[in-house]
Structure formats: structure tokens, C-alpha cells
Request: fold
Amino acid sequence: MEPIRTTTEGQVTGIIGIVLGIIALIVAFIPCIGVVAFLPGGLAIIFSVISIVQASKGNGSKGLGIAALIVSVLATLLAAAWLLLFSGLSIIANESMKDPTTVKRIEQVIKEAFNDEEDDLPSKQRIDSLENRLRAIEKEKDNEKKEKE
Reply:
């Protein structure tokens, strides 16, 4: 019986993939620039897949390629989460710029909710009251949109 020989096929691309994946993961955790992690994360995914394919064809170890793939996918998903958060915030900012009176109404409702003379109210009731007032503003906004159409 001849022992099974493993080669170093795919190790170089696996190392490149894991290094890029770790860089992408570190960048993805930084709040304002986490979206930038798409570039090294995408490259890390490509190198990781190439590493796994090379290791499969050349009877090499696939462990490094799989680890690189996991880290790079995690970093890319984290960057996507930042992108979704920032796009949602930009939509909210855009809507508030179109109708600044809504922002003023929301601000007024929040001030009223926390400056009530009834200091004996539990905080849960204050929050519920605030939530109901904000929903009323939202309904008013929807009614205004329907009237415009």
C-alpha cells in the first residue's frame, strides 16, 4: 500500500485569500468605512474558491481555502449590513429634507413626551405615549400623501 500523498496545491491562493479575508473583516468592523470591505472581501472570496478548486484537483489540503472562504464571506456580509444601514439612513434623511415640518413635529412630540408635568408616570407609559403620538404623525403624513395623489 502506498501512502496518500498531499501536495501544496492551492496553498498560496489560500494564504492570499485568508490574508485578504482578515483585512476585509477588520475593515468591516470599522463603523463609517465598513462598506469598503467589499473590495478585499470579494477578492478574498475569489482567491478562496480558486484555492479550494486547486487543492481538489491537485490532492492538496482544502482547510486553508475553506477557512479563508468563511472569513471572507463573513466580512462581506458585515459590509453588506453596513451598506443597508447607511442606505436606510440616507432614505430617512432624504424624506426629512423633502418635508422638514415632519422632523419638527417629531421633535415637538418627543419634547412633549419627556417634559410632561406628570412626573409620576412610569417610563413604560411615557414611551407608549410617545409611540402613539409618533404613529399619529405617521398617519397624518400618509393622509397628506393620499390627498396629494
User: Anything to note?
Assistant: The mean pLDDT is 82. The helical segments are 11-28, 38-57, 63-98, 100-114, 123-148. The longest helix spans residues 63-98.
